[in-house]
Automatic annotation (TrEMBL):
The keyword NADP does not apply. Belongs to the LysR transcriptional regulatory family. Keywords: DNA-binding, Transcription, Transcription regulation. This is DNA-binding transcriptional LysR family regulator. The keyword Transcription applies. It comes from the Bacteria. Residues 1-58 form the HTH lysR-type domain. PANTHER family: HTH-TYPE TRANSCRIPTIONAL REGULATOR, LYSR FAMILY TRANSCRIPTIONAL REGULATOR. PROSITE patterns: HTH_LYSR.
């Protein structure tokens, strides 16, 4: 079926006049009439009957006009959706992130983004750094937020985003709570170590190695942040953790920070994208957090 002719017929049917349809479409009346006649011959049915200065629909014409209306409304919806996709206000945004940004940085930005673009579906996958990078490389995520390392990959672009301070913490009633001490003094405490491969554990060991000091004794090993914090809250040992992970508890007064002379270490969080152009929803999300961070 000739869709151009169908559009002309639908316009004439909607306006009740071939002449008015021609004017609305900026075409000549004979051209519109010829296309409608050609459509009638193509489908083998009479669609319009002249009536005074206008036209009347036949039974077939009424059915075809109703279906044409559905078709052109769908066409309009498709065009609107495509415009929304180009504008970044529709579609789906897949994010991947390591634990720190997923839990302490991204929730605020995801909430703001959803308020600004409610038509975009957002999905967040929490993973370790290598898994987050793989999700991005295999097109299962459009942005990856990776903390703890500055990963360089030939297919990925890295944008620095946040530098989180590392800190030593103890129970609020500990003799070192709120004190300023040397690293040697701090390392006399039994430490609660996170699992092997965790950023805080590796940074603490690297710090000791750089200062030619033995690593602190392992008082406990805990496979999780909350477990580590709970043990400190209960009054045992010290831990070396991210300030983002601990500041709410420090502010609440249930744990306390220890200032250690000459120690300033950070946990970098970077934004990763593929080197090809980001989708409009992804680019809008990145622009939002970089503009207001």
């Amino acid at each position: 079926m000739n869709l151009h002719a169908l559009r002309l017929f639908y316009q004439a049917a909607s306006l009740g006049s071939v002449t008015l349809a021609a004017e609305a479409l900026h075409l000549s009346q004979p051209a519109v009439t010829a296309q409608i006649k050609k459509l009638e011959r193509e489908i083998g049915l009479r669609l319009l009957i002249p009536q005074g200065r206008g036209v009347m629909l036949t039974e077939a014409g009424r059915h075809l006009a109703a279906e044409a209306r559905r078709l052109f409304e769908l066409e309009g919806h498709i065009e609107e959706t495509l415009e929304q996709l180009k504008a970044g206000s529709a579609g789906k945004l897949h994010l991947a992130a390591t634990y720190l940004p997923a839990n302490f940085l991204l929730p605020k930005w995801i909430a703001r983004y959803k308020r600004a673009y409610p038509g975009v579906g957002v999905e967040l996958s929490t993973a370790n750094s290598s898994q987050a990078a793989d999700l991005l490389l295999h097109y299962r995520a459009e942005i990856a937020f990776i903390g703890g390392i500055r990963l360089d990959h030939p297919l990925l672009l890295r944008t620095p985003w946040y530098e989180d301070e590392m800190c030593f913490i103890v129970h609020k009633g500990h003799p070192l709570a709120g004190a300023r001490v040397t690293l040697e003094e701090m390392l006399q405490e039994p430490f609660i170590y996170r699992e092997e491969g965790s950023f805080g554990r590796e940074q603490l060991i690297a710090l000791c190695s750089a200062r030619h000091l033995p690593a602190p004794p392992v008082g406990l090993q805990m496979n999780g942040l909350n477990e580590t914090l709970r043990v400190v809250m209960e009054g045992y040992g010290a831990a070396f953790l991210s300030l983002l992970e601990t500041r709410e508890h420090i502010a609440a007064g249930v744990i306390s920070r220890v200032e250690v002379d000459g120690v300033h270490m950070t946990n970098p969080v970077s934004i990763y994208t593929r080197k090809e152009e980001a989708s409009p929803p992804a680019q809008r999300f990145i622009d939002m957090i970089l503009a207001k961070s």
